[in-house]
Design a protein that fits this description.
- There is one protein chain.
- With 675 residues, this protein is an alpha/beta fold.
- Helices cover 47% and strands 21% of the residues.
- The protein has a 6-stranded mixed sheet with strand order 6-7-8-3-9-10, with helices on both faces.
- Helix 4 crosses helix 5, helix 10 runs antiparallel to helix 17 and helix 17 packs parallel to helix 20.
- The longest helix is centred in the C-terminal third of the chain and has 44 residues.
- The chain is rod-shaped.
- The structure holds adenosine-5'-diphosphate and magnesium ion.
- The site of adenosine-5'-diphosphate has 12 residues, from strand 1, strand 2 and helix 1.
Length: 675
């Protein structure tokens, strides 16, 4: 088996659809253990050939076998793996990572071949090579603290690190003085002789070439001359290519490994450009703060506003029915509507609408008066006739006594429950319960025995005078009402089960009555809960709008990261190319950049969360100063927090993807050729 076999190789650079043919029908073979020099005029295609042998680009035509393996059979990851395992590169420009120390530079290939040896083994091996190359006391120097010759020796150690069979060197002495050049050549000869490495050196230097086993001369993309007989490979033998080694490399495992390797590197890269990173982070911090604050404030405001309106409970409505005075003579009416009939139709409504939980007629007199034992309240008394359900539905609490009983409703008992202010003003020196009040409305006047006193209440409808109300059994009210009109049931308060849709039930009841009475009745549902439902919808919309603005801010921040990462990809053009040369797969390159953007986002995001947290509490605090009805409280909205955390990672990944793809697509050769 030969180290390298090339048959009928053609290679063209393709730029803007024009193809320039560089290598033309080139064939050659290099045996394992050979030290070969490649010479030829500048521009003859020597470097191009070396990149092809190094698996950095694919031939336009022809076959290349490396250690018997036809490279056209390998996919990209396998090529990367082969580069790492079998091939070491040495360049004229050294291509060291400028911010990494000597030892870190030497260790670089092991990042992409981590399972071969333990970290300790790699480290001791790297030290050994450094010692061997005379760099033992320079391990923690950076490349700019080394001479050219020393830098190239670092590159030689790096090339040895993965223990490759083949070393490719492109003008390794081209940038060196003659002493350093001799040292490097000595090193390479050493490796060839003692370690049986196959070494291919491109060189202008005839002294270097003369020390090689063989010189291959290239002219105009073909081999012009070889000092020894060229052993053109026997195609049949070569066809027995070795079986591909499978790379056991699970995606997740390799991601984890890449993440682990990239994390410190990412932190270092970001720290290198502190101002730029910090400025970029501001965008994300503000965006995340806005997302957290807007959603939290939206939810907070919603809760506060709605709690003020939920007086009747979110599942209570009032249903109205009046005869239609404008009814036309031509209207067809099944049954004419007079007013609601409690026993006849309202009670049975529960059977048709099982969602109904409680129900009470509401009869009402506006401007009543009360007196007891010489004290009186002459106006503003609101007199209600209701069933025992009314207080339960309107959530009025009793401070004294009890609610009506069912029997009292049935028997039209002369009992009443009075508002707090009535009790306080009339019974300042006697127990209210059991006393008989005199209630008058218009010319009508009657007595009722107090069985309960209501707790004070506030209402967003102050004209309802919640503390000057008197409740009577509606049957009693009907019996006493001065006139026919006042005794009719026109309003019914209805409470539905909390799980049912109140709007739907309300509409259903209305439809039921409209079908029964046709155009002879006018029916209407009035409900705080419908109002609340509408208000909730509005407030949700409001929150969504605010949050969208916040998300736009965040997106702008994300674009900032993308921009920074793109700049960073361009700046690290050569580093990425080098990493690929040393065997980094596309996935590993991509992971490195994604991790950088995720780190930036995570850091900025955490700052943003803190900013947002204090920001919205400041907003609440200021609001409390202006709106005296609400009180300051510490608030954490878990939904907002969760969404913010998700956004941090989403933005991290999304803003990193484009630069990461750009980095992974980068053309290695262009990167290596760039100065
Ligand atoms: P050598 O190393 O022998 O000096 P190279 O292999 O670097 O030569 O280049 C061979 C030829 O290919 C040169 O004429 C050069 O101009 C051309 N070439 C190199 N890179 C590109 C490219 N990206 N696109 C087009 N032509 C290129
Ligand atoms: Mg060249």
């Amino acid at each position: 088996m030969n180290a390298v076999e090339v048959e009928h190789l053609h290679y063209s650079y393709i730029n803007d659809e024009t193809a320039t043919l560089i290598l033309k029908d080139l064939s050659m073979a290099i045996k394992i253990g050979e030290l070969v020099a490649i010479q030829g005029p500048s521009g003859s295609g020597k470097s191009t050939l070396l990149y092809l042998l190094g698996l950095l680009s694919a031939p336009t035509e022809g076959t290349i076998r490396i250690l018997g393996q036809d490279i056209s059979e390998l996919n990209e990851d396998e090529l990367a793996h082969q580069r790492n395992k079998n091939i070491g590169f040495i360049f004229q420009q050294f291509h060291l990572l400028p911010k990494a120390s000597v030892i870190e530079n030497i260790l670089l290939p092991t990042q992409y071949n981590p399972d071969k040896f333990t970290k300790e083994k790699n480290l001791s091996k790297a030290r050994e090579y450094a010692e061997f190359a005379g760099l033992g006391n320079r391990l923690h120097y950076h490349p700019n603290q080394l001479s050219g010759g020393q830098q190239q020796r670092v590159a030689v150690c790096r090339a040895l690190m993965a223990d490759p069979k083949i070393i490719l060197a492109d003008e390794p002495t081209g940038n060196l003085d003659s002493t350093s050049a001799e040292q490097i050549l000595g090193l390479l000869q050493n490796l060839n002789r003692d370690f049986k490495k196959t070494i291919i050196i491109i060189t202008h230097d005839n002294d270097v070439a003369k020390k090689c086993d063989r010189i291959i001369r290239i002219k105009d993309g073909s081999i012009a001359e070889s000092t020894n007989d060229l052993s053109i490979p026997n195609p049949k033998m070569a066809a027995r290519a070795r079986k591909k080694q499978s790379i056991e490399n699970s995606t997740f495992k390799s991601f984890l490994r890449a993440a682990q390797e990239s994390f410190p590197a990412a932190i270092r890269n970001l720290g290198r450009n502190k101002t730029r990173t910090a400025l970029t982070m501001i965008g994300i911090s503000v965006g995340i703060a806005a997302v957290l604050a807007m959603i939290t404030l939206g939810q907070f405001t919603k809760a506060k506003i709605l709690s003020g309106y939920a007086e009747l409970g979110v599942n209570t409505m009032v249903f109205y029915g009046y005869p239609n005075w404008d009814q036309k003579a031509t209207d067809i009416v099944p049954v004419p509507f007079r007013f609601f009939d409690w026993e006849g139709e309202l009670v049975s409504l529960k059977k048709i609408f099982p969602e109904i939980k409680r129900m009470s007629p509401i009869l009402m007199g506006w401007d009543g008066a009360v007196n007891y034992g010489g004290r009186s309240i002459e106006q503003d008394i609101r007199i209600f006739g209701s069933s025992e359900d009314a207080l339960l539905m309107s959530r009025r609490k009793l401070v004294l006594g009890r609610n009506f009983s069912h029997i009292e409703i049935e028997q039209k008992s002369g009992v009443c429950i009075v508002g707090y202010e009535i009790a306080a003003r009339l019974f300042s020196d006697s127990r209210p319960i059991g006393q008989v009040l005199r209630v008058s409305q218009g010319d009508n006047s009657f007595g009722c025995r107090v069985i309960g006193v209501l707790a004070t209440a506030t209402s967003n409808k102050e004209y309802m005078k919640p503390n000057l109300q008197i409740y009577l059994p509606f049957t009693f009210y009907q019996a006493l009402a001065g006139d026919w009109w006042s005794s009719q049931i026109k309003e019914v308060m209805i409470q539905v089960e909390i799980s049912s849709d109140i709007e739907k039930v309300g509409k259903g009841i209305r439809r039921f009555f409209e079908q029964r009475y046709g155009p002879s009745g006018r029916f209407r549902v009035d409900s705080d809960s419908v109002l609340i439902a509408q208000m909730r919808r509005f407030l949700t919309l409001f929150t969504v709008l605010l949050s969208s603005i916040a998300f736009v801010t965040l997106a702008v921040g994300g674009i900032g990261i993308t921009n920074m990462m793109l700049v960073s990809v361009s700046e690290r053009f050569r580093e990425i190319g080098l990493r690929k040369t040393l065997g980094a797969t596309k996935r590993e390159i991509r992971t490195q950049f994604l991790i950088e953007s995720v780190i930036v986002c995570a850091l900025a995001g955490i700052i943003g969360l803190v900013l947002g947290f204090f920001g919205y509490h400041l907003a609440i605090w200021i609001a409390v100063k202006f709106v005296n009805k609400i009180q300051f409280e510490w608030t954490v909205d878990w939904f907002a927090l969760l969404l913010s955390l998700l956004s941090i990672f989403a933005v991290g990944i999304l803003s990193g993807i484009f630069p990461a793809i750009k980095a992974e697509r980068l053309q290695v050769i262009e990167a290596l050729r760039s100065e």
